[in-house]
Amino acid sequence: MNGYGGSILRVDLTSGKVSKQPTPAEVAQKFIGGRGFGAYFLYTEVPAHADPLGPENKLIVSSGPLSGLMVPGAGKCDWTTKSPLTGGYASSSLGGHFTAEMRYAGIDSIIFEGISARPVYLVIDDDKIQLLDAASYWGRGTIEVEVALKEKHGEDFQVAVIGPGGENGVLFACINHDYGREAGRGGVGTVMGAKGLKAIVIRGTKSIPVADMDEYRKAGMALYRACIEAEGLKPWQTYGTTIVTSWCDEVGALPTRNFSAGSFEGGSKIYGAVMRDEIVITDKGCFGCPCPCGKYSHMKRYGTYVEVPEYETIGMLGSNVGLADIQAVAQANLLCDDLGIDTISAGGVIGWAMECFEKGILTTKDTDGLELRFGNTEAVFKLIEMIAYRKGLGALLAQGVKRAAQQVGKGSDKFAIHVKGMEQSAYATHNATAMLLAYMTCDVGAHHNRSWAITYDLQVGRDLVVPEKVARIIWLQDFRPMFDVLGSCRLQWVELGIDRDLYVPVLAAITGVHRTWKDLEEVGARIWNLTRMFWARENEGFGREWDLPATRFYEDPPTTGVTAGQITKLEDVQRLLDMYYEQRGWSENGLPTPETLERLGLRSMIAA
Ligand code: SF4
User: Fold this and answer.
1) Ligand 1 centre from 524 Cα, in Å?
2) Half-sphere exposure in the Cβ direction for 551 (13 Å, CA)
3) Mean pLDDT value across the chain
4) Can you tell me which atom of ligand 1 is nearest the CA of 72?
5) Per-residue pLDDT for 292 more than 70?
6) Is pLDDT of 237 > 70?
7) pLDDT for res 566
8) Cα separation of 600 and 532, whole Å?
9) Whose CA is nearest to atom 1 of ligand 1?
């Protein structure tokens, strides 16, 4: 098949058996690749109610048809599993250079199943595939192990690795690559750790079949030219995602002290410009990216370059825990990366624990003597380590904020900021109804990257509750994650304003199949509905209640900053859901109707 490596690699960690099967053409036709393959294999292969940390759950890594080819930012792969954090669908995107090697090894997806009796790592060198003993790497940090594995196997191999967080069952552990890129959310690293898999080391040398080489070169070059000529290139390249920090602070969207406000009095000390001046020494992009947003610094301790925080981490491990010091945020980021835990969830659980402490719900008896007040830098560092090793209060927080609040009680669930058990990423959504709905209905929990709508809220009126806003969110949810299906980065479109129609000819030239964006959005809707059905299958009573936002956003207005006094009333939250379900073709309880499933070609798959 043009545009595909041609094989699905299965790794049974229980038996140690490795096998390949041809990539199924009908799955490629209906789900295209990347996140689409992940959703398909998850729904059809993981038995209902499988334990996320048991042998029946699978960890699925998938590239897309653009991955590894000369298309701007085509270095993305998707990691899908049943989430141990939420009990539903998890899918997390990883940039860098890993997926290009997957493609050059002729692999479209790797499916890990079973559990290894001893720690192992997988080495793929084209068709030579081996599981090797990882005992000497187990227990060590991600950065150190990536350096060691590259030294052992060669610099031209790419490495994806978990840290102690994933080994120890922290429910929001991530998978690291390239010294700071992560598949961060939903506990994909936890599942990898439960399987006894420390790392994947990969190199490939094959070519990817392309349907029309001349057209591919022409269309690919047009995309590159558009990126290089874009007006926004220079600021984006200088600051990366941190460019939005000052804007979020100004408009009241910067999560501050556990989302109790959206503006931070110490904000100017953690803005992108400060980070650029104080820490950043070089830029680095993912495979084939002409507009690198990765900002790197050099760490003597590790003898390598490591990535410094992007916006989400600055929000969650900066203002959300009261740290007004970019150096401290960078150190907290490095700790999380090396220990292999998601910075967004870490900032969420630490912010919640700090609020519990300041309200007297937790005391020094619960915190091993830590004065867990907002702004206490040493307490943040210490708590990150306690979480990764599940020590003391860290064991409670390692379960995520939803479970921690259920265990602690005393009303602490009212300020546990999550949707469906996933800690909300770094946009304070006080009275920003589109972004609030985006979090409420996101397919993995409260994550921003499916439908980033905070600027749209500000453009059209943040408190509006109208069908047009809902339609915008649905369009974004069907469209934006398609980049994760194609195996390419969305930020060229989001940040540089590249015309999305430029992707149509390049996809057609590579695969030989002409698809318009309308066709692609239909695939996006198919995946969205399939994963919704996965949530419903795995969780008894799943429905509307699960889509409610954190209570704080409808009951507890900020007392400071530009959003002081502002909330979205619960009746408006419910109205947003009514409109959303109707436009999606879902029942009043938020489940796809049989007609919707039929329209999207899913009915027989669900029935099976
Ligand atoms: Fe990677 Fe950033 Fe480039 Fe996207 S814009 S491909 S995330 S470096």
Assistant:
1) 21
2) 8
3) 96
4) 6
5) yes
6) yes
7) 95
8) 13
9) 286
